[in-house]
Design a protein that fits this description.
By secondary structure, the chain is α+β, with helices and mostly antiparallel strands. It is globular. It has a single domain (3-100), classed as Folate-binding superfamily (Folate-binding fold). The protein has helices spanning 37-45, 91-100; strands spanning 3-5, 12-14, 19-23, 53-59, 67-73, 79-84. The protein has two helices and six strands, in the order E-E-E-H-E-E-E-H. The chain has a four-stranded antiparallel β-sheet with strand order 3-4-5-6, with no helix packed on it. It has a two-stranded antiparallel ribbon with strand order 1-2.
C-alpha cells in the first residue's frame, strides 16, 4: 500500500484515497496545429515505464482535490520527493542520485 502526504492539505493518504494521473511533466505543444501525427502519438500514448525512480502526478481526491507530483520507486514504492503541481522536478539531481544507488 502506498501512503503519500499531500503537500497542500498535509494529510497522509492511502493510494485508494488518491487518483493516479500518470507520468509527471508531460507538456502539450504550444501550437497543436503544427504537431505531426507521430508527435501526437507520443504525447497521448508513449510514456516511460521504468523499473526504479518514476516521476508521477497524483490528485488528493479524498481530501483537498489538489494535484501534486511524486517521485516514487516503482519496485519498492518508496516515495522520495513530493512537490506542489506547479513545481518541476530537478531531473539532473535525480539522475545523479540513481547512479549512486
Amino acid at each position: 500500500m502506498i501512503i503519500i502526504r499531500c503537500p497542500y492539505c498535509l494529510e497522509e493518504r492511502y493510494e485508494d484515497e488518491l487518483f493516479y494521473g500518470g507520468e509527471a511533466d508531460i507538456f502539450r505543444a504550444a501550437d497543436p496545429a503544427t504537431v505531426s501525427d507521430e508527435g501526437w502519438t507520443g504525447y497521448l500514448y508513449l510514456r516511460t515505464n521504468p523499473k526504479g525512480l518514476h516521476h508521477e502526478q497524483w490528485c488528493c481526491s479524498a481530501g483537498c482535490g489538489q494535484w501534486f507530483k511524486v517521485a516514487r520507486h516503482t519496485v519498492t514504492h518508496k516515495v522520495t520527493e513530493i512537490l506542489p503541481f506547479e513545481t518541476q522536478f530537478n531531473y539532473q539531481s535525480v539522475d545523479q542520485q540513481e547512479t549512486k544507488t
